[in-house]
Amino acid sequence: MSRRTLQLPSWLPIDPYVLALIGTVVLAALLPASGTAADVAGGASTGAVAFLFFLYGARLSTAEALDGVKHWRLHLTVLACTFVAFPLLGLASRGLVPYVLTPQLQSGFLFLCLVPSTIQSSIAFTSIARGNVPAAICAGSFSSIAGIFVTPLLAAALLGNSGGGFSADALLKIGVQLLLPFVAGQLLRRWIGAFIARHKKVLGLVDRGSILLVVYTAFSEGMVAGIWHQVTPARLGALLGAEAVLLALMLAVSWYGAKRLGFGREDRIAIQFAGSKKSLASGLPMASVLFGAQASLAVLPLMLFHQMQLMVCAVIAKRRARDPQEPLADGTGSVREPVTVG
């Protein structure tokens, strides 16, 4: 006799890694690192972040990046969504204080708006929706690279002291912990690129493990400092509502804005998925450097937005996949055939 098993709907993608992140937060709540253990965890977290950005630099193919520049109008559109439209909406969220968001949650909400776009999920959803996958790859990569430089500068300019004391010292930490490892990875890619490609899965686990360590350290500091007493269920609900509005606005701006700019269907799909999402992998390490002991509240909006964007974009991607085919402009005026992804 067959046994029926409970399965989640295919349109509701609960990312196992998000479950791991939630488990890490619970662990930090129950067993926060303090005293000597906190010093050890902090040092390990700093080293993990540096190694993470070293791997980012070592993986980036300069040739692929240069090849993607050919579609410059699309990439500029994605960058405008990520680093212009999003930050403007983040600044507008100051009107939600103190009635909807607390000042600390609003700082995290604004930081969320400054983080670069994703790469993996943008590519995956673009592929499902039968969009321009090569453009999504390049757009996500460009956004991640730009974010290493642009996000800290925007944070220093827009957050000021509300995020934990942005200063020349904080920017120096960004340079030492993020930029230098990234540049070192690029310089050494010629010799270690093949090794990294052969061990992609193992190093991927190192990536994710590093981020889990950053989350554990940040939330442990928040627990020890008693910062979670400032967040009530009502405030969390209000934060989710504000993030739902933010995501809806950016999905609309990226789709209809790209249409007004004359992009074809495939390109609009790539722009929408790359221009409406934010990277948890890039944002968490940056928050740990920029916010210090306040990082737990700063990354909460980003963690919630990450899962929300996965669920909503999965539904949109599957609906886009059912759209009729149409001739596609590549952004330079020429027409090309749709990209088929196996």
Explain what the structure shows.
This protein is an all-alpha fold and 342 residues long. The protein contains 13 helices and 2 strands. The protein has a two-stranded antiparallel sheet with strand order 1-2. The radius of gyration is 20 Å and the shape is globular.
Q: Tags for this entry?
A:
single chain; 342 residues; mainly alpha; two-stranded antiparallel sheet; 72% helix; 1% strand; disordered N terminus; disordered C terminus
Q: Walk across the major sheet and give the strand order.
A: 1-2
The first-to-last residue Cα distance is 36 Å
Main beta sheet strand tally, sense and closure: 2 strands, antiparallel
Shape field: globular
Give me the secondary-structure category: mainly alpha
* Total E-strand runs: 2
Order of helices and strands: HHHHHHHHHHHHHEE
Q: Which bin fits the share of residues in helices?
A: over 70%
| Mean of pLDDT | 79
| Proportion of residues in β-strands | under 5%
Question: For the CA atoms, what is the radius of gyration?
Answer: 20 Å
User: What low-confidence regions span 5 or more consecutive residues with pLDDT below 50?
Assistant: 1-9, 328-342
- Count, helices: 13
